[in-house]
Amino acid sequence: MMAGALEGIRIVDLTTVILGPWATQMLGDMGADVIKVETHHGDTTRHTGDRRNPGMASFFMSTNRNKRSVILDLSQDEGREALFKLVGTADVFVHNMRPAIATKLGLDDDRFMTAYPNLIFVKTYGFRGDGPMANKPAYDDVIQAASGITDLQTVISEGGEPRYVPSIMADKTSSFHVVSAVLAALFHRERHGEGQVIEVPMFESLVDYLMVEHVNGAAFDPPIASMGYARLLNKMRKPYRTKDGYLCVLPYTDRNWQDMFVIADREDLKDDPRFVDLATRTKHSAEIYGLLEEMVASRTSAEWEKALNAAAIPVQKVNTKEDLLNDEQLAATGFWQFAEHPTEGRIRLSSPPVRFTRSPSSIRRLQPGLGEHSAEILAEAGFSEAEITELMDKQVTA
């Protein structure tokens, strides 16, 4: 097997739930040696979702491949010192504790950076540490509410109520920031020979994400128009019902729309001044999407797909969650993989979506049992067999 891009990089991962673990899994897929530090109870995701065996639930299985697990009780002095020693063997250390809790546990970045100046120290949590909400508990729903994403759902929800997006999007979007920040810091260290401290806040990450299109008129000071991208805030922007199902139909360019009017037998709309270009269509998005809904209702899904594909107009059937398990594109590209896990039996894995020609990502380790590698990892950190036994006797590790 060819080496991954991050082969030789060690990451000590003191994160839980989704944000940190999914990020470090991606780094592990790229070849990094990821050491997952857990309490005796384990990451909460070990107990979230369906499972065959205790401690190996679906959420954990989705975010913790390519890792080794070590138990450390950080409420004990010996546990904190063991962590400090372990981090000394690493290139990257990641935690997702709020600043006050991290300080209480002795995870001040200045202590680590003084001892290990080449270390990349990553802190990821809800809100930037120098703001008034720094120590506020933050989970995905909290950040969706704070960032404005729930408010945007009032446009499409029944009764105009705020709603959560049915995905852990705040965590997962922030995970990408963790990955890109770690890669950038490794590149900086390669060039300049120094580590650094990185902060990845969920709230600020999601606001940045959301404002790409929705800052709109407030991109100028003073604002020249209201906030919000009208096309996305249109109630008629949705999959449309055909005679026998639903389709995403998305004419986008001027040529797409001209062809759509011809295919739909609505050539009378080709010269309508409301729809002649992107700017005017955006201004009249409610009207044109209403017309599109009427057009799509007139034929079957297969009829539309054949005609629109021939004209290179974007069209896509609406997949269910279950459809994705047998999707022809995913099957052809080998997206789903299967493996025999030593305790969980046959399992399904999504393959790393990004492909490298020279340093491919890969799944080298299946999800670890809680503390499966404790003795092995502590030995690598320099602990003797007698010291490891003593830590186990004191229940610092297991």
Describe the structure.
- With about 400 residues, the chain is an alpha/beta fold.
- It folds into two domains: about 10-210 and about 330-395, Crotonobetainyl-coa:carnitine coa-transferase, domain 1 (Rossmann fold); about 240-315, formyl-coa transferase, domain 3 (2-Layer Sandwich).
- It has helices spanning about 20-30, 60-65, 75-85, 100-105, 110-115, 140-145, 150, 170-190, 200-215, 255-265, 280-285, 285-295, 300-310, 330, 375-380, 385-395, and strands at about 10-15, 35-40, 65-70, 90-95, 120-125, 195-200, 240, 245-250, 315, 335-340, 345-350.
- The strands form three sheets. It has a six-stranded parallel sheet, sandwiched between helices. It has a three-stranded antiparallel sheet with strand order 7-8-9, with helices on one face. A two-stranded antiparallel ribbon has the order 10-11.
- Helix 1 (about 20-30) packs across helix 8, helix 6 crosses helix 9 (about 200-215) and helix 8 crosses helix 9.
- The mean pLDDT is about 95.
Write a compact overview of the structure shown.
The protein is α/β, with parallel strands linked by helices and 398 residues long.
What is the element layout, followed by pairings?
Layout: E1 10-14, H1 19-29, E2 33-38, H2 58-63, E3 67-71, H3 77-87, E4 92-95, H4 99-104, H5 109-115, E5 120-125, H6 140-147, H7 149-152, H8 169-192, E6 196-201, H9 202-214, E7 240-241, E8 246-249, H10 254-263, H11 278-283, H12 285-296, H13 301-310, E9 315-317, H14 328-332, E10 336-341, E11 345-350, H15 374-380, H16 385-393
Parallel strand pairs: 1-2, 1-4, 2-3, 4-5, 5-6
Antiparallel strand pairs: 7-8, 8-9, 10-11
Helix pairs in contact: 1-8, 6-9, 8-9
